[in-house]
Amino acid sequence: MTKVDALRALHRRRSPGDPLVLPGPWDAASARLFVEAGFPALATPSAGVAASLGHEDGQTPADEMFAAVARIVRAVDVPVSADIEGGYAIAPKELVERLLETGAVGCNLEDSEGGVLKDPRRHAEWLAEVRHAAADRLFVNARIDAFIRARRDADPKQAAEQAIERAALYVAAGADCVYPIGAPVDVLPLLRSGIQGPINVHGTVTGGPSPAELGELGATRITFGPGLQRAATQALRGIAAGLTAS
Predict the structure, then answer these.
(1) What are residue 222's phi and psi, to 5 degrees?
(2) Alpha helix segments (H runs only) across the chain
(3) Whose C-alpha in 115, 187, 224, 241 is 20 to 30 A from the C-alpha of 152?
């Protein structure tokens, strides 16, 4: 079985309380640690990788991001999906080829730019081009930013309806999974009832619902964004403070 086939298989026929948990490595060392802990696949976070490279989130040059993903892939023997943000304005065919050159077998692609949601139909057309270029070589996770780009006073149910509409377009365009990032826990059942196919939900490192609880609410898979990298940084900060104090 190829790695992309293995990644697809991990998303199928999951019981409600057993979602696929994909930790997010930011470098080769953290990737090896997660594999040693028994995780069957990994999903890099763009913000975590950016921090490891000394960049702000969203400011990593494409060449540096692809190089970082390649180092992570080389360090482990499990499938790796890469967060490549909005695609860095690279044409779909070249984007796919550059990603495949890293050894990654999946990607996370955002549907907003500069803090603004993209036109969903145009984005769906772009996703379809990515799918055509990739054929079955990549597992495509289409991020939906309806919740994180909504006004603070917006009704979460309206954002959920918008997310469901976008999800339908993206799935029809060939997305293997959709990721309504920032969705409140109480709307997850609504999303589950309205979205066809796997749903990626953002998990938390400390506090909040457990992966099993998120699975019961509708999550097929759980990722953590830069949460693990930030938790590791916080732990290292404590160690450094202790060394200074001594």
Answers:
(1) -130, 130
(2) 3-10, 28-36, 46-53, 62-75, 92-102, 120-134, 156-172, 188-194, 211-217, 227-245
(3) 224
Rg of the chain over all Cα atoms, to the nearest angstrom = 17
Helix axes 156-172, 120-134, angle to 10 degrees: 40
Backbone angles phi, psi at 223, to 5 degrees: -125, 170
Backbone angle region of 85, left / alpha / beta, with phi > 0 → left and psi within -120 to 50 → alpha: left
Beta pairing partners, 178: 142, 199
DSSP summary character for residue 35:
H
Residue 19 CA to residue 217 CA, distance in Å, equals: 10
CB-based burial label for 89 (10 Å; 0-12, 13-18, 19+): exposed
Find residue 42's DSSP bridge partners. 80
The angle at the Cα of 203, spanning 163 to 208, to the nearest 5 degrees, equals: 110
- Return d(Cα 123, Cα 169) in angstroms, integer: 9
Going residue by residue through the chain, which has 246 residues, state the pLDDT in tens, using 9 for 90 and above.
999 999 999 999 888 889 999 999 999 999 999 999 999 999 999 999 999 999 999 999 999 999 999 999 999 999 999 999 999 999 999 999 999 999 999 999 999 999 999 999 999 999 999 999 999 999 999 999 999 998 887 788 899 999 999 999 999 999 999 999 999 999 999 999 999 999 999 999 888 899 999 999 999 999 999 999 999 999 999 999 999 876
Determine the Cα–Cα distance for residues 245 and 25; give it in Å rounded to an integer: 30
200 token code pair: 């990626």
